[in-house]
């Protein structure tokens, strides 16, 4: 028999050969062993304030309705590896997303299994938790972002992951080359507002000290420069391009390194698809990213971008990343291209991807 770890409460469950589903003895959550990363996500993230619903199978690892919520607490003491994972479902909204929590679980598995992140140093915000303090509201996300970089020291590795809606808004500060600010949408963004790239940069990029590395993985529309980093890698031209604000505002770190991998360019939309799982919806960026890293843990940033691009193109040729309705509406191919940006230029073909 094999030992299976419940991703909801981290208790160990003894598995039996050929069994697929188990119920955790501790928290009563259902566990699927079909994939370490669990199940799936929703349909399509859309442009600006246009709202469309995404559908997908709910997570099979959701807590039981009568499960008591765990008290909210951030990891005590200094942690060299810390992560904030946000999956926003927008429950009871007409732009609801079903399944974003599964991509959060997929990322959590990767961080724990491959990169040795302590479970108690991974802060998860989803609407699956029966606790309002663990919901991905604007207030909770902002609080958690501050926690992520709090007291950071040389040698620290930090991760910010977000899965949900992303929008664009006109830029009135002269900070954006394209004239638009990029945003992420908390669960309560219709009332509390969106979280702008300027805020994210100020909160988790500028405080990074010498020797501290931050990776942001953002699976949302219009997320190309969501951290407002000063350098964007052009995969076609094989070179870094200047993304410094026209206004002259400083968007740099305090000596540390910030790297962002996003689902698409600022003017593109990000897709979910069943192309990779057979019958389960999954965010294209998240699934391809995790799969590629697991297949080659020693991969460089350059090879990671190239392999992800090839897999995206393959799925696109099969028509798996496009909505026929949206293709007709916008009269274009909705192909998304993963984007790499950084606070400093580096050799993407020599530098190994490592969190």
UniProtKB/TrEMBL annotation:
It comes from the Eukaryota. GO terms for biological process: proteolysis. InterPro entries: Caspase-like_dom_sf, Metacaspase, Pept_C14_caspase. GO terms for molecular function: cysteine-type endopeptidase activity. Gene3D superfamilies: 3.40.50.12660. Residues 81-318 form the Peptidase C14 caspase domain. GO terms for cellular component: cytoplasm. Belongs to the peptidase C14B family. This is Metacaspase-1 like.
